[in-house]
Write a structure and sequence with these properties.
The structure holds two protein chains of two kinds. By secondary structure, chain A is mostly helical. Helices cover 79% and strands 2% of the residues of chain A. Chain A starts with 6 loop residues before the first helix and ends with a helix. In chain B, a hairpin with a 2-residue loop joins strand 1 (204-205) and strand 2 (208-209). Classes of the chains: A mainly alpha, B mainly alpha. At the A-B interface, helix 1, helix 3, helix 4, helix 7 and helix 8 of A face helix 4, helix 5, helix 6, helix 9 and helix 10 of B.
Chain lengths: 241, 252
């Protein structure tokens, strides 16, 4: 089979997108404004990173302590697991667009909304992680004279790290994906390329998709690396067996 | 409340008024007034327009989860038999999981264009990791003693898999399908950007956001659909594992 036959339209499609990423293009909209290029890509990407990181941090600040506390007490299972299930069912598009039309648009509002979307998976996984810690370990720590806060910090938290990180990674996937449609609420992220076909053209849409995917994977790999570093050595050995 | 001020390419075009231009002759109907969060009149009058999108969304979800399950289940059985495959499958499905669906839809633009197939490919790719992880977890949680007994009774490896390990793993397997389905219902709302229809069409149309009443109804239907499917699957889970009333919640 001829090699030139199959990949040609494919390659052509992607070539245009890469040109859009690296050099400015004439916009299809009047006014002759140039769009695209590495500067605009980086600017939009940075907004998306800022938005996602702030939302993630806020979600972690709320969900991890709450999950640790309730997990340690062994109370509120229905609520903790229920929040996780309910959170999953919320359609991100509806949430973003509704907030934009009812509350208003802007960076702080979006950080808040994205954080709310990130809380359920972190809360549930922290809770489950702590409750799955071997009760014998907790009893032993109490036996050697640890206080309850010490048990949470030095025993339950380290043992729950893999589960907590699973929650954080799930939340991040959600937050980064939803940050992509942030332009619907007035914050211009890489999704602006995807949503603005009449300004950026098909190449811009594709370029936006490529950059968004790369950004999401950078987050994913960074968190996977972090998970490795945070998981205690003993736990890693146990998992390897 | 202040009306949404949107910069960038989305600034072009009006809001709710232009979307419902057919009513523009009347004196400011309820849905055109920004202060109204929910217009019951409009809702009762126009509820029919949500039928087809809801059905489209349901179809997208069911087809995607079925395809995703078939692939993930096959991966899991392979990895269960050939352990070294575990890591590459986990990493590969992880990458597909991490890519935002909206980006995935449009990455497929030069390959499959826009439409239902595109949405289904991206949505099923998203479900792989969730289902794969849960099936693996279920198989790994089967007690060694159960497998030993089966071996002692003279069951072959294949018989052990299908008659002992998989039945014991049903709670985790269905748990994975539940998580995948509920998330996919929510995400399938974005299929509007792949021109694949669904409830998203009632939230975002022709480059414009619709208005609160329509958004709330569309979002509400999506949530009810997710919870409904979840309840059905939970029932299936209970019926197929009569020996295990206290089912574990799958972690994902």
């Amino acid at each position: 089979m001829s090699l030139a036959l199959l990949p040609n339209p494919l390659l052509a499609g992607f070539t245009g997108a890469f040109e859009f990423i690296f050099s400015k293009q004439e916009s299809s909209v009047t006014g002759g404004n140039k769009v695209g290029g590495i500067e605009q890509v980086l600017e939009l990407a940075w907004t998306q990173v800022e938005l996602s990181l702030l939302a993630l941090l806020l979600a972690m600040l709320i969900a991890i302590p709450a999950g640790l506390y309730f997990g340690h007490r062994g109370k509120g299972e229905l609520v903790a697991v229920g929040i996780g299930n309910a959170g999953r069912a919320i359609p991100e598009l509806a949430a973003i667009v509704l907030v934009a039309t009812v509350i208003g648009v802007g960076f702080p509002v979006l950080v808040l909304v994205l954080a709310l979307l990130g809380i359920p998976p972190i809360l549930t996984n922290t809770f489950v992680g702590v409750t799955q810690v071997d009760r014998a370990s907790v009893d032993a720590s109490r036996g050697v004279g640890m206080t309850e806060p010490q048990i949470i910090r030095k025993v339950e938290l380290p043992l729950a790290v893999p589960s907590i990180m699973t929650g954080i990674r799930g939340a991040t996937v959600n937050i980064v994906a939803t940050a992509t449609i942030a332009p619907l609420a007035g914050v211009l992220t890489l999704g602006d390329f995807i949503l603005g076909e009449n300004v950026y053209g098909v190449n811009g849409v594709l370029a936006g998709a490529i950059c968004t995917a790369i950004l999401a994977l950078i987050f994913e790999f960074a968190l996977a690396g972090l998970q490795r570093r945070l998981t205690s050595k003993g736990l890693r050995l146990q998992q390897a067996q | 409340m202040n009306s949404a001020v949107i910069s960038g390419p989305l600034a072009a075009g009006g809001g709710a008024e232009s979307f419902f231009h057919e009513r523009s002759g009347e004196t400011l109907p309820c849905q055109a007034r920004a202060a109204h969060l929910f217009c019951w009149d409009w809702a009762t009058e126009h509820i029919n327009r949500f039928g087809t999108p809801a059905l489209q969304q349901f179809e997208l979800v069911v087809i995607s989860v079925v395809i995703g399950f078939a692939i993930a289940f096959a991966f899991a059985l392979l990895a269960h038999r050939y352990r070294p495959l575990q890591w590459p499958f986990l990493a590969g499905t992880g990458v597909l999981f991490a890519i935002p669906s909206i980006a995935f839809f449009l990455l497929l633009l030069p390959i499959t264009g826009r439409g239902r197939e595109t949405a289904i490919i991206a949505l099923s790719a998203y479900t792989l990791q969730i289902i794969y992880r849960n099936v693996m977890q279920g198989l790994n949680n089967v007690p060694e003693s159960a497998k030993d007994s089966a071996r002692g009774m003279g069951l072959t490896r294949r018989q052990i898999l299908w008659k002992v390990e998989l039945p014991l793993a049903i709670p985790e397997i269905i748990g994975g399908i539940r998580i995948a389905t509920v998330s996919t219902v929510a995400i399938a709302t974005l299929a509007v950007f792949a021109h694949a229809g669904g409830l998203g069409t009632q939230i975002y149309t022709a480059g414009n956001e619709t208005f609160p009443t329509a958004i709330i109804i569309a979002g509400g239907i999506a949530i009810l659909m997710a919870l409904g499917i979840d309840a059905v699957l939970l029932t299936v889970q209970r019926l197929t594992t009569p020996w295990r009333r206290a089912q574990k919640e799958a972690v994902a």
